[in-house]
Specification:
Blueprint (H helix, E strand, L loop, with lengths): L2 E4 L8 H14 L4 E5 L5 H10 L4 E4 L4 H11 L5 E5 L6 H9 L2 E7 L5 H18 L5 E6 L7 H13 L13 H9 L14 H18 L11 H9 L1
Parallel strand pairs: 1-4, 1-5, 2-3, 2-4, 5-6
Helix pairs in contact: 1-8, 2-7, 4-5
The chain binds adenosine-5'-triphosphate and magnesium ion.
Magnesium ion binds next to α1.
Organism: Rhizobium aquaticum
Protein name: Chromosome partitioning protein
Length: 238
């Protein structure tokens, strides 16, 4: 039951979209998925209530610093993947979620580079490593990448991030109307009607490859995470 967080303190980077397409793909593969919806806009909660319901999917819409760890602990035996959708701003939930994560995925738009918001998350992860000796694996995923973007343009962005020591996923998330349409239609990618969504097959393939790459980065068995960051810091200070 690994925990994956989507984090970037810049609004609109593509966190919620990435969270939904990963949830959708893991459900398609037969896994039981729980989304912890910590985005104040509650897109995934609304989507779930307007048609996204599925027996393999749980959406928790009331998530607080105090309750996040409890939700995970209480559901850990019934859930294969926890996905935490975080707010697009600095928020106390961010550090809590990072501390509970097995992998932090940082969406960065291929064109605009939400560099500052991504850098804040990466700095916080470095701080947790230095102060609390918690190493949390993390990667940038390039999002809203134009399907006509050249491999060279993409490599240039990747190389820049890699030169700064950031792991960048091989698979970007392409700009596709399908990723917007599934929110509007209240459906998952694999349940959607190809007659109503353009290039649905390409969107599904993108989600499939991304979910596969991410799965390879997750631990086979989740590491134990008995204490949150605040508790660890208190313990170290004592
Ligand atoms: N790959 C994509 N293809 C097409 N549209 C996208 C894609 N990713 C994001 N969008 C659109 O960009 C907008 C912002 O995306 P999203 O809501 O996923 O970002 P966010 O990081 O969750 O934002 P916030 O920080 O406000 O929560 C939305 O309108 C969404 O539909
Ligand atoms: Mg969001």
């Amino acid at each position: 039951m690994p925990v994956i967080s989507l984090a970037n303190t810049k609004g609109g980077a593509g966190k919620t979209t990435a969270a939904l397409l990963l949830a959708s793909e893991y459900v398609r593969q037969g896994y039981r998925v729980a989304v912890l919806d910590a985005d104040p806009q509650k897109w995934i909660t609304n989507w779930y209530e307007t048609g996204g319901k599925d027996p393999s999917l749980t959406v928790i819409s009331e998530v607080t610093v105090a309750s996040m760890q409890t939700h995970i602990r209480e559901m850990r035996d019934q859930i294969d993947f926890f996905i935490i959708d975080l707010p697009g701003q600095r928020d106390p939930l961010l550090a809590t979620a990072l501390g509970l994560s097995d992998h932090v995925l940082i969406p960065v738009q291929g064109c605009a580079m939400d560099a500052k918001g991504a850098a804040q998350v990466i700095e916080l992860l470095a701080h947790m490593k230095n102060q609390a000796k918690i190493t949390i694996p993390h990667s940038v995923v390039l999002t809203r990448v134009s399907s006509i973007a050249t491999t060279r343009a993409l490599s240039a962005i990747k190389d820049l991030l890699v030169s700064r020591g950031v792991n960048v996923l091989e698979t970007p998330i392409f700009e596709r109307s399908a990723f917007r349409d599934i929110f509007d239609l209240g459906t998952m990618l694999h349940k959607a009607d190809p007659a109503r969504i353009t290039n649905l097959d390409k969107a599904r393939e993108n989600a499939r490859v991304l979910a596969l790459e991410l799965k390879r980065l997750l631990p086979a068995k989740r590491r134990e995470q008995p204490l949150g960051l605040a508790a660890r810091l208190r313990q170290r200070a004592a």
